[in-house]
């Protein structure tokens, strides 16, 4: 599963290169999560999850606090969670998750991004069946054996534990996300290099060199869209 983490690192590095964009997206996601329930992570699981993710991207406390305070207001603005699926250059597979207050705006923008880069949007289910929703939690400063022992002692059900560069990655079912994190915290680990429930491709592909620029242009265009929160794909970068 190390190949999967390589792709997460690539995606995260790309996002980190534009902090204003990632902070804005997290601000919206935090607002929506807080608005759905109590604006308190201790009683709102969805909000707690988003805040855990935000920590791994170093989202400033001021942005988090502002989003939560906004959710406490009387605004009745409604957001919708949408998923689009499509194909990029050389038949690559892409999933786009969006959060929007205008469903009539989002689909045309996503479709245009696909078309301009030589891809095309597919119907619902055309791509997602080749991905698995997976919790991925990564730490530094622990060996593979230490992480295995932590998971065993906590009796957490995981899919795999992999050493990758200077990190150890734990892959688990989405419903085990909290259990994995709590096991780490009980062992004194409070910082995570990644803490996501993501869509991981079952099989990865390496693009021919002449298709790489168009693919990267497509991913950048999708991630730049205001309504797009996450972009997943099945491309492995060298």
TrEMBL record:
The chain positions of domain TACO1/YebC-like N-terminal read: 3-73
Q: Which Pfam families match?
A: TACO1_YebC_N, Transcrip_reg
Q: Its principal location?
A: cytoplasm
As for subcellular location, the record says: Cytoplasm
Q: Which InterPro entries does the UniProt record give?
A: Integrase-like_N (IPR017856), TACO1_YebC-like_2nd/3rd_dom (IPR048300), TACO1_YebC_N (IPR049083), Transcrip_reg_TACO1-like (IPR002876), Transcrip_reg_TACO1-like_dom3 (IPR026564), Transcrip_reg_TACO1_YeeN (IPR026562), YebC-like (IPR029072)
Please state every residue range assigned to the domain named TACO1/YebC-like second and third. Answer: 79-235
Top-level taxon? Bacteria
Similarity annotation: Belongs to the TACO1 family. YeeN subfamily.
Protein name, UniProt field: Probable transcriptional regulatory protein MU1_22860
Q: Which organism is it from?
A: Paenibacillus glycanilyticus
Q: According to the entry, what is the taxonomic lineage of the organism?
A: Bacteria, Bacillati, Bacillota, Bacilli, Bacillales
């Amino acid at each position: 599963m190390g190949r999967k983490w390589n792709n997460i690192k690539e995606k995260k590095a790309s996002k980190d290169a534009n902090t204003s964009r990632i902070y804005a997206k997290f601000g919206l996601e935090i607002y929506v999560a807080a608005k759905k329930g109590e604006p308190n992570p201790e009683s709102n699981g969805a909000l707690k999850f988003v805040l855990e993710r935000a920590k791994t991207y170093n989202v400033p406390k001021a942005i988090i606090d502002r989003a939560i305070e906004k959710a406490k207001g009387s605004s009745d603005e409604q957001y919708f969670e949408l998923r689009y699926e499509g194909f990029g250059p050389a038949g690559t597979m892409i999933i786009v998750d969006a959060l929007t207050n205008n469903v009539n705006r989002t689909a045309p923008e996503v479709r245009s991004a696909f078309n301009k880069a030589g891809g095309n949007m597919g119907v619902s289910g055309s791509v997602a069946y080749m991905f698995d929703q997976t919790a991925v939690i990564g730490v530094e400063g622990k060996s593979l054996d230490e992480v295995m022992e932590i998971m065993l002692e906590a009796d957490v059900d995981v899919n795999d534990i992999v050493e990758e560069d200077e990190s150890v990655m734990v892959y688990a079912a989405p419903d085990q996300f909290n259990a994995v994190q709590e096991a780490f915290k009980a062992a004194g680990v409070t910082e995570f290099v990644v803490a996501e429930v993501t869509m991981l491709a079952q099989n990865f592909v390496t693009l021919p060199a002449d298709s790489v620029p168009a693919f990267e242009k497509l991913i950048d265009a999708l991630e730049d869209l205001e309504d797009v929160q996450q972009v997943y794909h099945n491309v492995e970068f060298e």
